[in-house]
Design goal:
Shape: globular
Strand content: under 5%
Radius of gyration: 20 Å
Oligomer: single chain
Order of helices and strands: HHHHHHHHHHHH
Number of strands: 0
Length: 310
């Protein structure tokens, strides 16, 4: 492939990914508008948003941040240097490790949900609101496992230069959470009171499962078949874990310099209002502009770098 053809391919891929991610962010805004329209900026929606905040933070720090970047870098190099068979073996090891570790994190999150909610709210919320938040937190913790595996699948597809379907995966999450959440919420409580928030929490899991499963057809087409592999004492696995460290620190610094400052507002029960003001402008710009170029460029850069090193 010539340099000009490579540039045209990268530009086309970036355009496809950009449109897919832009579609996802628009659906995300619609999701927030639907939820706000049904519940308003009140105590019920506050409970849901607070319950979603911890698994969503871990998603940003690990799944769609550090893990995705570290895995794409290592997996792309493995394809170029050692071939597809070796790369798929690495993928099985990392996928198995991720599933086991995130399952443990999920169980711990469910068990210690009361302590985590008290920590985030400074113990200042009313008992009934706190109890509702704990229930919703426990329901939504498995979202972390689903989205971590979805990020791995996205990394595999990007490394194989398949960009459109993984970029659309976030749209599947938003659609699943809107359709499933609203439908189940209405079934539980047609007046959309506190009980219907359980439906929104279950809808979040539906969206996470759709985000993962929606990428499977593309993954099968590039030749991947999962087999559990517990041989984690592997150079590739160590490389992925080593690369994750600096990325987690960088992402945490970005979060702590902005997100933690809002805790005073959370303590006073302004979670829903803060969610619609601070987060949306930052996230829309970050993911719609930065991510589509980053996904394509990282995979292409690692491929070229590994090819020159051979």
């Amino acid at each position: 492939m010539t340099a000009a053809e490579d540039r045209r391919g990268s530009t086309r891929a970036a355009g496809i990914v950009g449109m897919a991610i832009l579609s996802s962010r628009i659906l995300g805004l619609i999701r927030e508008m639907v939820f706000a329209g049904l519940f308003g900026a009140g105590r019920n929606l506050d409970a849901f948003l607070m319950a979603f905040r911890l698994p969503n933070l871990l998603r940003d720090l690990f799944a769609e941040g550090a893990l995705s970047t570290a895995f794409i870098t290592t997996f792309s190099k493995k394809i170029t240097v050692d071939g597809d068979a070796s790369a798929w073996r690495l993928a099985n090891k990392v996928a198995t490790l991720t599933a086991v570790f995130m399952s443990a994190v999920t169980l711990l999150g469910i068990v210690f949900a009361p302590q985590l909610v008290d920590l985030l709210t400074w113990g200042s919320w009313s008992p009934d609101k706190t109890e509702l938040t704990i229930l919703l937190t426990r329901i939504m913790w498995p979202f972390m496992l689903l989205v971590s595996l979805a990020a791995l699948v996205m990394g595999m597809l990007n490394a194989k230069h398949v960009f459109g379907p993984p970029a659309m995966a976030s749209s599947y999450f938003n659609l699943g959470s809107i359709i499933g959440g609203v439908a189940i919420g209405w079934w539980l409580d047609p007046n959309f009171g506190a009980r219907s928030l359980v439906g929104l929490a279950i809808g979040t899991l539906i969206g996470g499962a759709w985000q993962l499963a929606g990428q499977f057809p593309s993954l099968w087409r590039v030749g991947y078949k999962y087999h559990a592999d517990f041989q984690w004492r592997d150079e590739g696995v160590r490389t992925v874990l080593t690369l994750m460290g600096p990325a987690v620190i960088a992402d945490w610094n970005s979060y702590s310099s902005t997100g933690i400052k809002k805790r005073g507002g959370w303590k006073r029960g302004r979670v829903s209002r803060d969610s619609r003001s601070w987060d949306k402008a930052r996230i829309f710009a970050h993911y719609s502009i930065g991510d589509w170029a980053g996904d394509v460029c990282l995979a292409n850069y690692q491929r070229d770098l590994s090819a020159r090193a051979i």
